[in-house]
Amino acid sequence: MKDQDETTRVTGNATTQLNDYKKFHALHHQAKPLILANAWNAKSAQLIEQNGYDAVATSSGAIADSLGYEDGEKIPFVELLYMLQRIKSRTTIPLSVDLERGYADDLNALTSNIQKLIDIGVVGINLEDRQGEEIYLKKLSSIKNYLEKTSQKLFINARTDVFLMKLPSPLETTLRRAKRYADAGADGLFVTAVADATILKEITAATPLPVNVVGTPQLSSIETLTECGIKRISMAVFLYRATYHQLENVVKNIGTQHSFAPLF
């Protein structure tokens, strides 16, 4: 009976993950862009869901900073996984994870990490290409082959940091990578550090993949980004920073005003 109960639980979790994946995938192919607020713990994720967002994403920088780590895979994967489990346990909407470079260079370790994410109900990842497109394509192909072999689904948002890293011929390089990533099975294209609407229009026109950007001071209008053909807009670490900026102001004002009034 115990084995049967465990089988039922695992099957139920897999069904829920697949249904959430289908919802998440569809959200990238609608008239309006998917707006994603990026959580860093269970409470922030709950607030995002309670305020009507269709899905929740995480920010690697926010989670790392909240636990006292620098960004860039400095947090041990086991600690990241724990935070993701807590987020998933307190929300019902699809969850996508900022996986940086995958927290592994060994391809078997990479697919092991992917399975651990799927097991807790994650439906999407961001995977970045700072190690170069050849290494990236090996990682992407390894994940896609693993998913096909195990009959599982995961939305892979291919993050390209060409503009962020100030590489030569950034638009041409981005478009080349976009095509190669799409051909290798990526589900979306996440372009960082582009604050020019004209460039964004060129990118969205050149790729069949739904394009993701982060809202920035230069391009903060959802309407403008929609006109550029953007299908997914994230808040990245900026939501976390805005939250802690408010906290800093409250703490500072209590000290300067010699009053607890700023709390209320």
TrEMBL record:
Domain of life: Bacteria
CDD domains assigned: ICL_PEPM (cd00377)
Record key words, sorted: Lyase
Pfam families in the cross-refs: PEP_mutase
A GO term, aspect molecular function: lyase activity
Alphabetized InterPro entries for the sequence: ICL/PEPM, Pyrv/PenolPyrv_kinase-like_dom, Pyrv_kinase-like_dom_sf
Protein name per Swiss-Prot or TrEMBL: 2-Methylisocitrate lyase, PEP mutase family
Organism: Chryseolinea serpens
